[in-house]
Fold this sequence. Notes:
Helices cover 0% and strands 49% of the residues. It contains no helices and 17 strands. It has strands at residues 5-10, 19-25, 37-40, 42-49, 55-62, 66-72, 92-96, 103-105, 110-111, 116-122, 126-127, 134-137, 140-146, 151-157, 162-168, 174-175, 184-190.
Amino acid sequence: EGPVVTSFETAGATNVANIPVVITFDEKTKSLETADFTVTNGMIENLSATSDSTTYAFDVVPQLEGEVTIQLQEMSVEDGLGNSNANASEVLSFFYDTTPPMVLSSGIDTTNVNPAPITLTFNEQVSGLELEDLTGFGGVLSNLSTVDSITFTLDFSDPVEGLNGVGLLANTITDLAGNSNGEVLYWIEFE
């Protein structure tokens, strides 16, 4: 029986130009080359083996944002006895994303309700948003919550009459790929 893949995974962030990948076999192998992989939306560079030739590391360079897939083809790598891998590996799939998370809408422009319910809707799932990351200009923010990590609700209390605002500090939240947000400011008119 030939070598069997025991592990095939990204070894770091998927929002960088060169995404590290590691593949491990159940025994020492030889003859592994970049041409032994099928890659969609990217290419393989910097293939190298550990000293015992059971683990290989390489970089995947994505072509465009979106899904990247990699698969080791069957009959492409051999053990010391010349036995080839009988089966292709599982498909390694990840999403290459370099776009920072953005607020798509702030949910309110003019109101006379106190506290005013505010909804912040992001373009993708985010993590790390805390009430302390937001600033209320002219009022007090409270009760931040979310059920899907895309849409967040909070209350804006004790506003001054006229223009008030909600600010989100830069680099306080990240998307699933690790991209950080830019600074955002939304104005609310209280009547």
